[in-house]
Amino acid sequence: MYESPFFKRDEFNLLPPSPGIYKFHNSEGIIIYVGKAKNLKNRVTSYFNNSKTHNRKTLKLVSEIQKIEISIVNSEFDALLLENSLIKELQPKYNILLKDDKTFPYLCVTNEPFPRIIATRNRNTRNGTYFGPYASVRAMNNVLELIRKLYTIRTCKLNLSNKNIQSGKFKVCLEYHIGNCKGPCEGFQNSADYQKDIELAEQILKGNLIIPKQYFREHMEISASELQFEEAQKYKNKLELLEKFQSKSLVVNPRLTNIDVCSIISEEKSAFLNYMRIKNGSIIATQTIEIKKKLEESDAEILLLAIIDLRNLYQSASPEILTNIGIENIPAEFHFTTPQIGDKKKLVDMSLKNALFFKKEKLNQNESSKIKELRVIKQLQVDLQLKELPIRIECFDNSNLGGTNPVASMVHFKNGRPAKNEYRHYHIKTVVGPDDFASMTEIVGRRYGRLQKENLPLPNLIVIDGGKGQLNAACIAIKELGLYGEIPIIGIAKRLEEIYFPGDQFPLHISKKSESLKLLQRLRDEAHRFAITFHRNIRSKNTFVSDLEKISGIGEKTINELLTHFKSLRKIKDASFEELNRVVGSNKAEVLMKSFQHKKGES
């Protein structure tokens, strides 16, 4: 792989006609998009030459591109793998999000003298052999329950080393007495016999049910021929358990083996993708996911990117992938088929049904959420006797600890949900000292004075975190702007959750169980959280900058350079000498390092 230097936006014609990946950087040097290409020059220039065919989001992406970085690889397949890896690592703003496998459940056969089979979400190959992941805990537990019914595998965490067993360190537990374990802890079962059960259990975990079925059938026949009918019945019962388990997952001709199925359906904002892994006619793994679209990704592009993750996740090397869409320019390493008839078509149809059901379920959930939100704001309208439905609600709060760094916050809810792009922070500018009332007057006046000036829509309801005093302070600003009576405004006092209206002597009490009160509480708590977080960050920044200013030889210009480059204040302290040297030079880097080390020694 060859990584090129950066190209400026107007130098993209210098790009090579080779397969590889490209990274778009914005003006701050942040990677905002990663893509793959069979021909880097053609693909990258298409963003700039075909602007009339782009949608709004792609045009927004293009407007932010300042630099282009490329990596040349040997093939389109290598580019696909590298793109997948970089998206998960960098999570660029305009790429579809690919999730990692950290939260999926697995079954692990541990690396111990007498291995256990345990459920886990933490995959560390040093601890044992992992099987899965499973689409749900229920599916995993079904397999684990089957294995424990078929084989006597220990569930204890004892260290069953030869030394411990021979010294008689352990005693059998209840599991031995009820027949779920053969007591290897006391030497009642040897390692070879125990390992045989583990090997057969691993075959089930791999989806190879033929081998354990053959084992039980042979031993059943041997026991019957030796007139050991009770033993034969035990093997027969286990065989029936295995066949019953297989019948639940048998979907098509058992001769269809080692096949992946991946179907996709799409709408404007999302794609819904179902993956199934087939072995001996049975589904041994399945998962349905939703992928949020960011730009103009086609179904084929999304499927190709997702199938890499899914095959890695389920450890599949199946030579054939069945899908419901035609895919052009397929890398040679993949063999896609779109079947039209037969058992393979049935598999694709089944996968598509799963994707459609998942899509319908998601849309129903979203619809139910919207209905609930509408019900809550309608109830709030009734409880507060508002003329209009409070679709847009804004809530204000101050944060002032000891009069230092006074700040305030405003949060905005639309249709009962946070609209975080409308949140605002405020530095108090005109108030000296810890005067919460005057601060409230200032920020409310600034907020709605600006909305008036810019001719932007006003909220349907204003909520003030506080009682009569805070509410009256906010009303002063509203009156000065000539908006008093036009926008409903209330105060919510925390202690008794009382609702105050301007001019009313007595507060309104809404039922503690009311959804509308819970919405107001959520608004108040969110405004408080937002203000406190901002205040904490300001204090931290001021303290740190103040500490930097105290260092002899470090001036305002140097501090600005450090903050601009490292972005985070913590990263400045954690930076190495080499990193500081590149930004401010060796002399100042040495001064900073000595100062940081001295402060660490004091603490």
Cα-based radius of gyration, to the nearest Å: 33 Å
Structural class: alpha+beta
Q: What's the average pLDDT?
A: 80
Give the amount of beta strand, in percent: 15-25%
Number of strands: 20
Question: Which shape, going by the Cα principal axes?
Answer: globular
How many strands, what sense, and barrel or not for the largest sheet? Answer: 7 strands, mixed
Number of domain modules: 5
pLDDT below 50 for ≥5 consecutive residues: which ranges? Answer: none
End-to-end distance: 46 Å
Pfam families: GIY-YIG, UvrC_RNaseH, UvrC_RNaseH_dom
GO biological process, one term: nucleotide-excision repair
GO molecular function, one term: DNA binding
Subunit structure: Interacts with UvrB in an incision complex.
Describe this structure in words.
- The chain is an alpha+beta fold and 603 residues long.
- It has five domains: 2-90, GIY-YIG endonuclease; 106-249, no CATH class; 259-361, Nucleotidyltransferase, domain 5 (2-Layer Sandwich); 392-527, UvrC, RNAse H endonuclease domain (Nucleotidyltransferase, domain 5); 551-602.
- The protein is built from 18 helices and 20 strands.
- The chain has helices at 40-49, 56-64, 76-90, 137-150, 162-166, 174-177, 191-206, 210-225, 229-249, 299-313, 342-384, 436-453, 468-480, 515-549, 556-566, 569-574, 577-584, 586-602, and strands at 2-3, 7-8, 20-25, 31-37, 67-72, 106-110, 117-120, 128-131, 259-266, 270-279, 282-292, 320-323, 336-337, 392-401, 404-414, 417-418, 424-427, 461-465, 489-493, 498-500.
- Strands 14, 15, 16, 17, 18, 19 and 20 form a seven-stranded mixed sheet that branches. Strands 1, 2, 3, 4 and 5 form a five-stranded antiparallel sheet that branches. A five-stranded mixed sheet has the order 11-10-9-12-13, sandwiched between helices.
- α8 (210-225) runs antiparallel to α9 (229-249), α12 packs parallel to α13 (468-480) and α17 packs across α18.
